[in-house]
Every structure is written in structure tokens, then in C-alpha cells.
Amino acid sequence: MTPTPLVVSAQYLNEHLDDPQVVIVDCRFALMEPQLGHQQYQISHIQKSCYLDLNQDLSRPVERHGGRHPLPDPIQLAQKLEAIGVNFQETLVIAYDDSRLAFAARLWWLLRYLGHDKVALLDGGWQAWQESGYPVTDAIPTPQPGKFSPQLRSDWVVNIHELKVCKDLPNVVVIDSRESDRYLGKQEPIDPIAGHIPSAINYPWQEVTDPQGYLLSSLQQQQRWSAIEPSAELVVYCGSGVTACVNLLSLELAGIHTGKLYPGGWSDWCSYLQ
After folding, report:
1. For the chain, is the Cβ count within 10 Å smaller at the N or the C terminus?
2. Residue 132 is part of which domain span?
3. pTM over 0.90
4. Pick the catalytic residue: 50, 238, 245, 270?
């Protein structure tokens, strides 16, 4: 069986628009304007694509601890995936956004976390699709319901208590995915406290793609992680477990499969410092 590609081109997606085994998901979102992504979807989206919202679908409600985007309840997410026509381990899900994979990668990671490996990201995202002149629409699809029975890979995540125990071990590398000024504590536009988790090193998620949102080559991804010991256990975080998934994608493209997600991220960590 041919392995599912991690990334597909706009041309590939256009050629598979009518494939009944393909479900397309629009993940556009704006952290500072939570309604914007859905509004954009309603105006225009890739033909046959459904919409999943970062706050409403790909996260569960915020509590005192756990970060700004806690992982969604697996059963509830499975029901939403069924509603848009995803069949567990059968349907190829292709996700896109307009933010250099920041939000589409969250869905990519979540599906694999639920045991569904047939998921790929649209290289270049919404912009690449538009620039190629492929069909867009404002029509909302009515998919045939699917059947999705998640098989959770619970060892893919690390909580704050586990991180406190493991972060200083010699074989563990903690990776902060935020831009360098936030990592260094020079600015913090979202969370109440600036800084980073002690011992963490910085690999900004924006380095995974070029400014147009196209992924760097696998060789460039490998070079990006070349300073990391191959046997190291990696714990990846960001502000709230969203853009860290772009780095987890980069690690996969580089052939490194030891990356785990700390989904609470800095927003969870600093909630215990107040």
C-alpha cells in the first residue's frame, strides 16, 4: 500500500476533487479575530471543502489550566469528522489554511493522534489554490456521513507534570516553537507572563515554510534539525499547542519520529506561575 504523502500540491488536490475517498477541510483562522476564518470560508473556499474551527472544533473549552487551546475531546472530534464524511483509516483528509499551515497542521496532527494516518496538508495553502486558478465556491457541501472510531495514541502527548520530570534529563530536548522574541521574553502579545520553559531551545515554526507558505524541502528540514541528537526524545510546544504542530510536521518530513506535543504550551506553563 502506498504511504499517504504528508503534503500534496494544489494540482494533486485539483485532480482528486471528485474522489469519493477524499475530504477537504478548510482550517482558516485568526487568533485575534476568531470569527474571521469561518466568514472567509462562507464567502469563498475550495470546492467541496468543509470547515473546522480551531476554537469550536479543534480545541475544547478553556479552563484555568491546560492552556488556551486544550486538545478536543476525542469522541466529540470523531463525531465532527464523521459528520463531514471521514471514514476512519480510509478517507484521505486534505487540510489547508492561509497561515503557513499554522492551523491546518493542528488538524493534521490531531487526526494522526486519533490513529488516522490518511491526512495530508495542501502545500502553499489557500493562496496556492487561488494562484493556480482552480475552482472556488461559496456552496456549503452536504457530505455523506462517515464512520470514525478513534484509536488514541496517548503516548504522543506530554502534560505539565510529566514535562517537569523529564525536561532536564540528558536524552530529552524541549523545543519552543514560538518566534524568538517571545521565546526570549522580549515581548508577549497573548499570555500574561513572558519567557520560556527552562531548558527549552528555540526553533520558530515560521522557519518550516517560505514566506509564501510553501514547505522547505525534506533536505532543508533535515538540515534544520541536524544539531539534534538522533536518539533524543523531543517535546515540542508553542503558546497553546497549535503552531507546535508545524514543527512536528517538519520533524516528520526530516524523518524524525520521536517528537511529542506538550499541548498546553507556554499558556499552560505560565498559568502555574501567577
Report:
1. N
2. 7-137
3. yes
4. 238
